[in-house]
Design goal:
The complex is a heterodimer of chains A (275) and B (108).
Chain A (H helix, E strand, L loop, with lengths): L1 E5 L6 H11 L5 E7 L6 H7 L2 E8 L2 E8 L4 E5 L7 H11 L6 E6 L2 H10 L5 E9 L2 E8 L14 E6 L6 H16 L3 E6 L4 H4 L15 H10 L3 E5 H6 L11 E4 L1 H9 L3 E5 L1
Parallel strand pairs in A: 1-2, 5-6, 9-10, 9-13, 10-11, 11-12
Antiparallel strand pairs in A: 2-4, 3-4, 6-8, 7-8
Chain B lengths: L2 H24 L5 H20 L2 H21 L1 H6 L8 H18 L1
The chains are: A alpha/beta (275), B mainly alpha (108).
Chain lengths: 275, 108
């Protein structure tokens, strides 16, 4: 790491000098001594090159430290854990981490990783990176300060339809998509979450066996709703309990875990219709 | 030929009409083929008992088997994937489950 004396050089020349030094071989950061008032612009340079920014005043000299941060990433493999196991493990670990610490969660189940990523902001976390390594999916989470939310009026422009009844109860099954269709017509953003018996609706071929006297077959109504932008989630645990996998589901539906469900319920913008 | 068996079957079919109507409504009219088969079986069974004609009774037996088979095939998806609701179907399926045994016994 370079330590540089740049007394007498004023902003913005001092910033330009520092940037050139970093570009030419000081990627791990520099410590530079400046005259008072010459530190203007250094913060943006630190941000640009991913360096931490610290400033210290000594008499008429300003010492600026811009150092590359080395954060150790803890690893947690949740492969094989049954929902809601992964989110419980991650939540417990996050709650004991210090602000700024990072954790890398891996799993062979991409649904579990997506579930964790969706709910991370509500656990005082931030998603840093997400992707696939070999046969495993991963997400890197950084612990952040817990936000103190100020109560404010929320425009309830979203509708969450929760359905725990399936093809064995035709009227309730139809209600899922009839209400969704109505909400879409009113300009609302709609999400459907199927759990317990409700997951039977999303299995290929099942909805076609349901017919309401006043409407077309359920599978056509469901497809119409999905084509109009409604996201349909299927409870991972309920589907697994019934021997269903993602491949068994109709196009446009997606497996999701308990964390996604709780995250949706926790969003104050959602009006929840629960069957 | 055991007319007593056919009489018992007739009683089961009558009961099945009531319980079947519940499942018929709950499943959204999709049990119509089974419901039709059951009603038809009821009529022919009644005719067989009334006339004593062996050919009519054989026809009734065939329809009874069809009613039982369609009952289970059409509710298969519910039984497998929708078992929280399947107790509502249990009374009707229990009655239909009795039909094959009695039907076979009545024609042997």
């Amino acid at each position: 790491m370079k330590s540089i004396k740049a007394l007498g050089i004023k902003a913005p020349n001092s910033a330009i000098l520092a940037e050139n030094i970093i570009k030419n071989g000081a990627e791990d950061g520099i410590i530079i001594m400046l005259s008072a008032g010459a530190e203007e612009g250094f913060k943006s340079i630190a941000k640009k090159y991913g360096l931490t920014y610290e400033i210290e005043n000594k008499n008429s000299v300003v010492v600026v430290r811009m150092i590359k941060s080395e954060i150790e990433i803890e690893e947690l493999d949740v492969t094989g854990e049954t929902c809601p196991g992964p989110i419980i493990l991650v939540g417990d670990r996050l709650s004991s981490m210090a602000v700024g610490d990072r954790i890398k969660v891996t799993s062979k189940s991409c649904e579990a990783i997506e579930d964790i990523a969706i709910s991370t902001p509500q656990m005082s976390g931030k998603v840093i990176d997400q992707g696939t390594e070999g046969d495993k999916s991963y997400v890197v989470i950084e612990k952040t300060e817990k936000k103190v939310e100020v109560a404010a009026a929320v425009n309830r422009d979203k509708v969450l339809v929760v359905q725990s009844n399936g093809i064995g109860n035709a009227e309730r099954a139809y209600a899922t998509f009839i209400f969704s269709k109505a909400a879409l017509s009113m300009g609302k953003m709609v999400t459907v979450f199927l759990l317990m018996d409700g997951v039977s609706i999303a299995k290929k071929g099942n909805a076609a066996t349901v017919k309401h006297p006043a409407f077309d077959k359920l599978d056509k109504l469901m497809k119409e709703v999905i084509d109009n932008g409604v996201q349909v989630y299927v409870c991972e645990l309920s589907a697994e309990f019934r021997g269903m996998k993602q491949a068994d589901l109709v196009d446009g539906t997606k497996m999701a875990g308990a964390a996604t469900y709780v995250t949706l319920l926790s969003d104050p913008a959602y009006a929840v219709v629960n069957f | 030929m055991q007319i007593i068996y056919q009489t018992i079957i007739l009683a089961i079919l009558f009961s099945g009409i009531a319980s079947g109507f519940i499942t018929f409504r709950m499943s959204g009219m999709r049990l119509a083929p089974h419901f039709g088969a059951m009603i038809f079986a009821l009529i022919v069974t009644l005719a067989g008992i009334a006339t004593g004609n062996i050919l009519v009774i054989y026809a009734a037996a065939a329809l009874q088997l069809i009613a039982a088979i369609t009952a289970f095939t059409q509710t298969w998806a519910v039984l497998k994937y929708n078992f929280q609701t399947s107790p509502a179907y249990a009374p009707h399926l229990a009655l239909m489950g009795m039909l094959p045994v009695l039907t076979v016994a009545s024609v042997l």
